[in-house]
Amino acid sequence: MKIRKFIAYSMPEAMQQIKDELGTDAIILNSKEVKPSGLFGFLRKKKIEVTAMLDKDVTRKQKNLDKNRTIERNNLRQHIHSSDHQLVLREIKHLQKLLMKQPLHSADEYPPMLEMIYQYMIEQDVKTDISREIIEKIVAAIDEESLDRETIDQLLYETIEKTFANHIVNGITESSKVIQFVGPTGVGKTTTIAKVAAVQMLQRKKSVAFITADTYRIAAIEQLKTYAKILDVPLEVVYSHDDYQLALEKFSHYDLIFVGTAGRNYRDEHFVNEL
User: Fold this and answer.
1) Cβ atoms 231, 194 nearer than 8 A
2) CA neighbor of 137 nearest in space, from 113, 160, 105
3) Could you tell me if residue 21 is inside a domain?
4) pTM score, two decimals?
5) Structural domain of residue 154, as residue ranges?
6) 256 in the same domain as 190
7) Residue 185 — φ and ψ, nearest 5°?
8) SS3 116
């Protein structure tokens, strides 16, 4: 594990130092302003001290994990292409057909395979009435001669697509000003910011500015910086509530302010409160 302190005149300069020495997997632990020392220190420009860490063990473990997963996938592919592949498939499809024709003893009496899909949607916080509507549409479209998992999956995809094809969301209205993008890690918040910003700029001729509070990983900031440069929009990186308020004031004359946040588990109350 490496922990280093970097001193620079600006946060972008400090970020570049961290990236050059520790790489893009470094994690920022702390940042603060440093007052210049000496008799005439008050005349000098303030600096920023940033503490960053790189845990090589974590990086190495992740690489080993990725390697093991690749090996497992290759082994699985070899197994699937074995001589018994077709026989196993026939047996599975036969069992699936039997399951589809035997409903569970539940209030809705859905066949077991559809009951599993229904329960999964409920667990994913899909509303009960919407989940039932989707399952009932699949039931109505089922062909008993082709009852297998692939068919059910395809019907589920098509039904969801048709159900929400004409669904209208208010989205960004004329009264919208600050739009904050939140959600777990890896769902595409930063990419979505760039896409929505491009639409607002090109189609609706809106002036747009970016704020990012996702300072956990340097790579996240660099990604939004790249999008900001492509779209030619300003970007502010904020590290505290006060920074955020200052950034909002700075961009107050823009039509829309898009705010990126760090990925957080919405089921974890501590992280939600922190956000």
Assistant:
1) yes
2) 160
3) yes
4) 0.47
5) 82-164
6) yes
7) -65, 135
8) helix
